[in-house]
Amino acid sequence: MRKFAEVVVSLPMDRVFNYSIPERLFNEIAVGKRVFVPFQNRTIVGYVVGLSDESGVKDTKEILSVIDAEPIIANDILKLTRWIAQNYFCSWGEAISAAIPGGIKKGKVSIGERVKDIHDGNGAFDKTEPHILMAEQTKALKSITDSIEKKEHKTFLLHGITASGKTEIYLQSIELVLKKGAQAIVLVPEISLTPQTVERFLSRFGDHVAVLHSRLTPAKRFLEWKKIRDGKANIAVGARSAVFSPMKNLGIIILDEEHETSYKQEDVPRYHARDVAEERAKINNCPLILGSATPSLESFYKAKNGEYKLIKLTKRIDERLLPKVKIVDMRMELATRKRITIFSKVFLDALEKAVKAGKQAIIFLNRRGFSTFMNCKKCGFVFKCKRCDTSLVYHFENKKLICHYCNYTTQPPDICPKCRSGYIRYFGLGTEKVESEISRNFSHVRIARMDSDTTVKRGSHDKILGDFKAGATTLLVGTQMIAKGLDFPQVTMVGVVSADVTLNIPDFRSSERTFNLLTQVGGRAGRGEDGGEVIIQTYAPHHYAILAAAKHDYEKFYDEEIVFRKELELPPFINLVKVTVRARNEDITSKTAAELAQAIKSVDVDAKIAGPAPAPMVRMRGYFRYNIMLKGRDRLAMCALLKKVLGSFRKPHGVLIAVDVDPISM
């Protein structure tokens, strides 16, 4: 009998601890089980990752008890979490902790057995049968099914224009996987934003599907996870953490809208679900499909260089035409109209045409609120958040100034706190203001708004989209929530109020985000028989991201953007690692960041080190933030270097250091 257990814990300590196994637990202990262990004067949960006959440590402490009757962490998940720990600067225990449901992290064995099955309403979906595929779809499916038959790992980039039938390829691939007695994982960016995609899987496969996402209660989430583990569901559909679904015989992984930034986890472990899915597919020898109308530059670059197999879908289902796109130069509107206007004449005419024809329209602006800032006309004072380096946004509905970063809320004052004058004005534009202006022009039709203010309540997403689908609402105003995966055949017009909102973010990916959003939101138009048109209002009509989106030309955008990325040595040519130092005192923050940058530079490493420099928004939630950037080709080497440097770096009390590998924002 093995006498010692190798245990990892969910703390930022990158090491394996040895514990002795008391005789009474000899028959209970196993790799993949959770145990209670004594740790620095307290009892915590540990994960058994190995067993051995001897310990390299004198006087090992004993394991107190074994939590699980059966191992809850399978071998492939152990391998996967080890890989995450090495590649995303976290401990093995923290990576394992991300792979099990939150409700049982503190050592519970089960949770909420009284919860009714999550699919109570799923019987309501009409069962759908496989569609007859078009020639391009048939060819694409053939490539994928060859890999399924051979049980080999291959990554496919399915680059299909909007409405080209990517989902049907996913569904038919899964059907073959199920026939072979294997299982499937389907990742979608955020379930609440892609309800129609989830619906398609439920109506095709019914009870075979388990749905995992952030809006579930911990009890419901655990039950779905358990359903997969017990083999009662063969398909897991969910947001990024569904990549860890406890499948016993994984046959395929599908990542829909693979370009989406929500696949990146913002806190520890800061993994990217696309890379983790690729690693899991390798471990399980199964194909991975990455699908998108606007692939990330990293994925398309890999496809161009033969690392991924590129599959193109260039035609819409039933040969429907792509919507016509008009770019409106708002500089001309400004020059020719007497007052500043939100909507151009072209925009309003197109909207009126859709309404008169009894059709629907989507109006898009990626900024919520009524006015984006409030200032004093006399002294120029701008009302800013007390805790963040940003202006407060005025929300008309609850008559409040709100910070969109920390949720700080205050009443709008009648007089300027600086010069005591009453010349206070509201500037800028948000979805609330757009909605109120639209209802002034179209008072006779029903308008709904969809942003993170109107969707706070559970079920509000479904209600807004359900009303729109049923035709109870004619016009839908919203942020990027309405840009993804929605299919409404009656929508003939999509209007983008300001294409410049994402273009002006201080980030090297701002052009890519603008192109993606415009293409995706434009793709919501003309999905029915009637065709459609898209109106894009902008102050930068000649920017290549906007011109390429108007022509639905991804490759044109890619060719321009990749040159810029190569010149500046940015992804996909190198890997980035961002080290953020934060504290409540700015002097301490900048001094510590300078010392840390010096410590990193003093170690021999094949990477360029830039900074420290203040973050684009230097103060957030009361903390000052300074960034150090590492640029290099070897992600593993940079992580190993930082583990070494930070292991011996003495930081002042109250200073926090975070490491983000392949950050998606600066």
Number of domains: 4
Walk across the major sheet and give the strand order.
Answer: 8-9-7-10-11-6-12
State the fourth-level CATH superfamily of the largest domain.
P-loop containing nucleotide triphosphate hydrolases
Briefly, what CATH class of the largest domain? Alpha Beta
Query: Judging by the overall fold, what is the CATH architecture of the largest domain?
Result: 3-Layer(aba) Sandwich
| Class based on secondary structure composition and strand pairing | alpha/beta
Shape: globular
User: What is the fold-level CATH name, i.e. the topology of the largest domain?
Assistant: Rossmann fold
The overall strand count is 27
- Using only C-alpha atoms, the radius of gyration works out to 27 Å
Strand content: 15-25%
What are the segments in which pLDDT stays under 50 over at least 5 consecutive residues?
A: 117-123
Fraction of residues in helices? Answer: 25-40%
**Major sheet:** 7 strands, parallel
Distance between the termini: 52 Å
Estimate the mean pLDDT confidence.
86
Specify the number of helices.
Answer: 18
Question: Top keywords for this entry?
Answer:
23% strand; 30% helix; alpha/beta; Rossmann fold; six-stranded parallel beta sheet; 4 domains; GIY-YIG endonuclease; seven-stranded parallel beta sheet; 666 residues; 27 strands; single chain; globular
Model description:
With 666 residues, the protein is of the alpha/beta class. It folds into 4 domains: 4-104, PriA, 3(prime) DNA-binding domain (GIY-YIG endonuclease, 3-Layer(aba) Sandwich); 128-318, Rossmann fold (3-Layer(aba) Sandwich), CATH 3.40.50; 320-368 and 430-564, P-loop containing nucleotide triphosphate hydrolases (Rossmann fold, 3-Layer(aba) Sandwich); 575-661, 2-Layer Sandwich (Alpha-Beta Plaits), CATH 3.30.70. The chain is 30% helix and 23% strand. The protein contains 18 helices and 27 strands. The protein has a 7-stranded parallel β-sheet with strand order 8-9-7-10-11-6-12, sandwiched between helices. A 6-stranded parallel β-sheet has the order 13-23-22-14-21-20, sandwiched between helices. The chain has a 5-stranded antiparallel β-sheet with strand order 2-1-4-3-5, with helices on one face. Helix 14 (510-522) runs parallel beside helix 15. It is globular, with a radius of gyration of 27 Å.
